[in-house]
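Any chance you could type out some protein's one-letter sequence along with its backbone structure tokens so I can compare the two?
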Amino acid sequence: MGSILRSPRRKVLLPTAALMLVAGALLSFGVGAGAKGLKTVTATAPVSHFTCYTASSPNLPNETVVLTNQFDTNLSATLGDVSWHCNPVEKTVTNAAGTKAVTPIVNPDDHLLCRYVATLTQPSFTVLVNNQFGDAELTTGQPQWLCLPSWKSEGAATSCSGCVSIPQTQVQPPGLDHYLCYQASYTQSSSGSNVLAFSLPSSLKLQDEFMSKAVKATLGPPNYLCLPTVKTTAAGTEVGLVNPGVHLVCFPLTASVTPPTSITDQIQFGVAAVTINNLSELCVPSTKQIIGATPVVTSTTGTVTVSAVNASTGIALIDATFSASENGAVVGTCTTDETGTCMISLPPAGGAATIAVTGAPAGSMATGTWQSVQPVGGGYTITSFFDVFTETTVP
């Protein structure tokens, strides 16, 4: 397991330079090139859909963590009782012509165990979201729970050893982020109508490991938006991001399912006996478009700091890659971290350097082209051109 030590905090990263065969998809993990702060782990695999069941596990102690995502930076939160247990699920949609579209499970061993967070007062955000149901504009409320990657076995076992079909080289499944889930609803116009809403299917079937066969389900309007989130424990252990551009939009659903009464989940904090209640939600992988985040460049003695943060909302663009070029040759690069910033160190010699976006961030830049010219230590003059990027639709 790759790890980076940084006093006084210890950072835990997913495997670097490793190949893992999961659900028939070849994953390649590598550490991002951020020049400061948390380094992002990237993966090529998509994320499964999830069916979430209301659940409880009173034997889990409260945990204090620090959370960082595109909405919140260094958010202190206390994790309480379990709220949901989520299974990967196969989704089948049939259109009016009778054609079926099946979305398979990406990794059958990926699960989420969601825990309530203590009451937090956070600002509201309005975002454009895209998934298999189309586009929608959502307005967020308060964060409700943190979903943690989990191994799962059925029955009230005291250990999860051997409960999955692939070796447990980590305490949690690779390729799956933590998600902080916020209340969310369609944005309303001045007349009280939805500004932009999903086109929900009229014929939907779901099948997860709690179901002996596919069951019919009906979805309601979205009620949660879950953001991939960096988690730092009280001991100072940071768990980075795997798919920073992949979010989950959750829909309340109605379906006839009788789940097992008890299961066991293993998360980073240990093994928990979990009581399963009712099927509650379908969470769909989604992308979120951030509008109006304009990068700003500052400099000190030959080092350029790029800050891709929306000045009005404070939303940061994560995983945006920038490069500095002189006479057509790249002289430095950096990738924005969870704060939306990164630093590029320029060579001692002076000259004219151009800063440009070289990798699509987990969001979108402001419409149009942005340019700035300012002096930098060592005689450099910086000219910055930033193009428009929009997230790619997630299957």
